[in-house]
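hi! just following up on the protien thing from before. the input was this:
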Amino acid sequence: MKRTNFLLLAIFMAAAFVLPAQAKRVRTLRLTSYNIQHGEGLDKKIDHERIARILKKAHAEVAAIQEVDSVTRRNGGVYGLEEIGRKAKMCSTYAPAINFQGGKYGIGILSEKQPISVHRISLPGREEPRMLLVTEFKHYVVACTHLSLTEEDRLASIPLIVEEARKWQKPFLLMGDLNDEPGSPFYEEMKKYFLFMNPSYDKTFPANAPNICIDHVAMFYPTVSPTATLSYYRTWVGEEQASDHRPLHAKIGIYCE
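and the predicted 3d structure came back as:
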C-alpha cells in the first residue's frame, strides 16, 4: 500500500472513533425542586400564582413540587398543581399520596413539555403513604419524591428508587424534599448511587431562617462515570415568602445525541 493511501486510511479510522463523541452536544436544563406547603406562604395566604411566578422567574423547564393539594377544602376545591401549571404555562403530572379534606394530597411535576411516559411508585411511609413520581422526556428522566419523616422508611426507600433509576438508559434526575441532611446515614447511602448537586450550605428550611438542607437535586450515576453524562451543574436557593421551604433551583448541562 502506498504511504499516501495508508495515511488516508489511518485518518479515516481515527475519525470513525472521534466523530461519535463529537456528535454529542450539551443540553442545558433548568430545574426547580419546591415543597410548597399546599401553596400557603409565610403570610398564611394560599397563592398559587405566587408559586407560578417563582417558577417563571427561574425559567424552570421541569419543576418537582411537593405538598400539593387537589380539590381539598383548605385550598377552596382547586386542583393546585394544574392551577400553578396553567399560570406558569406548564404541563402538570400529579401523584396523589393520601385522601385529604375531600380531595387528595401528594406530589407533582410541572414541565414545559408533556412527558413521554409517567410512572407512580409507592414508597414506605408509616406516618403517611409516600410516592415516587417518574416522568420520561426525550433526553432525560425526572423523578419527584417527598420521603418519610421516619429514618427506617427513608432507608427502605433507597433500593426502590435505585431499582427504578436502573431501568433507564437516560440521565435520571431525582428531586424533592428528602427529609434528611448531608452526612446522615440515609444521605451517605444515597451517595453510593446518586451525585448530589446542591452543597450542604444550600439551606432550604425553614424559609424565614433556613438552617438545614433537606431539599435536594441529584443525578443517578450512569454506568461508566458521572462525566459521561454530566457536563456542568450549579444550584441556588430562591426567595422565602411563598412557602415554609425555599425553592431549590438548578442549571445543569447534560450530554445528549
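The radius of gyration is 21 Å.
The first helix runs from residue 3 to 23.
cheers
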